[in-house]
Write a structure and sequence with these properties.
This protein has 2 domains: about 5-125, N-terminal domain of MutM-like DNA repair proteins, CATH 3.20.190.10; about 145-270, Helicase, Ruva Protein, domain 3, CATH 1.10.8.50. The protein is elongated, with a radius of gyration of 20 Å. It is of the alpha+beta class and about 280 residues long. It has helices at about 5-20, 40-45, 145-150, 160-165, 175-185, 195-220, 225, and strands spanning about 25-30, 35, 50-60, 60-65, 70-75, 80-85, 95-100, 105-110, 115-120, 255-260, 265-270. The relative contact order is 0.14. A hairpin with a 2-residue loop joins strand 10 (about 255-260) and strand 11. The chain is built from 7 helices and 11 strands. It binds zinc ion (ZN). One of its GO terms (molecular function) is damaged DNA binding.
Length: about 280
Amino acid sequence: MPELPEVETVRRTLAGLIVGRTIERVSVHLPRIIQRPDDVRVFEMQLAGRKIEDVGRRGKFLLIRMDNLVLVSHLRMEGRYGLYQSGDPVEKHIHVIFHFTDGMELRYKDVRQFGTMHLFAPGQELISKPLAKLGLEPLDESFTYEAFCHVIAGRTTKIKPALLNQEYIVGLGNIYVDEALFRAGIYPQSQANHLSTEQLRRLYEAILATLSEAVLAGGSSIKSYVNGQGEMGMFQHSLNVYGRQGQPCPACGQPIEKITLAGRGTHYCPECQPAGME
Ligand SMILES: [Zn+2]
C-alpha cells in the first residue's frame, strides 16, 4: 500500500498532468469505486464540464479540486492514475475514465478494486467521512513539536500503534513508523506516556526527516507511474530496519529483529532501540 510520501509524489505528478484541463464527460465502469453520491450517473453528470483547479492531499487521500466540486480519491492497495490520449487502447482494470475537452483522458486503474472516490461541495469534504476524523498532517507547517506532543505524549498505549493511529497523525504507515523509531532510538513497545522529553523531541525530528527524505526520493522514480506502465509500488528509499530482519544494523552491526506488534510486522535494532520504557 502506498504510504504518505508515495501519495504526496502522486499528488505532485497528477497536479502537473491535469490542472487546467476541463472534463468533458466521465465514464464509470465499476460502480462500487464511487462511494458518493450513491448514484453513479449523478457522479458522472456532476463532473461534466468542470475545470480542474488544484490537486491537494489530506493524509493518503487525494483531493482533486474543481470549480465548486471536490473529488476525494483514495488509491488503497493498487489504485493509480495515468494520462492517455483518447485513442490509446484501454487496458484491463480501468474502472473510471475522465475524458478531457482537449482529447486527453485520465484513467483510473485498480486491479484490486479497493480504491474509493467521493464527491463533495467544497468545504463539505473536511467535515464528512472519510476525512472528518483525520489527525495532524505531518508534512504541514501546523505539525509542530507542541502539536505532536499534544496528540502523542500522554497516551497509555505503546508508541508504535499510537503513531499508526490516523486520528492522531495521518499518513504514517508501517514502514515509516519503524524507520522513524529506529532513527529516534526508541523501542517500538515503549509506552507513549513513558517517553522522556528528549525522546519525544528526537521522535518528532525523526518523523519529519524520514518523511521528507522519502518524498524527495519518491520524486525521482515517478516516470513509469505517470505513463501508466510498471507497478505502483514502493519507490526507492534507503530503509534502515524495515524488511531487514537478520541483517546488520547500519549503525551498530547487530542483527535487526522482527516482532509482531499490534498485528503488524515490526523491525528494530535491539542495541540502538533498547527496551526498558515499556
Ligand atoms: Zn543498531
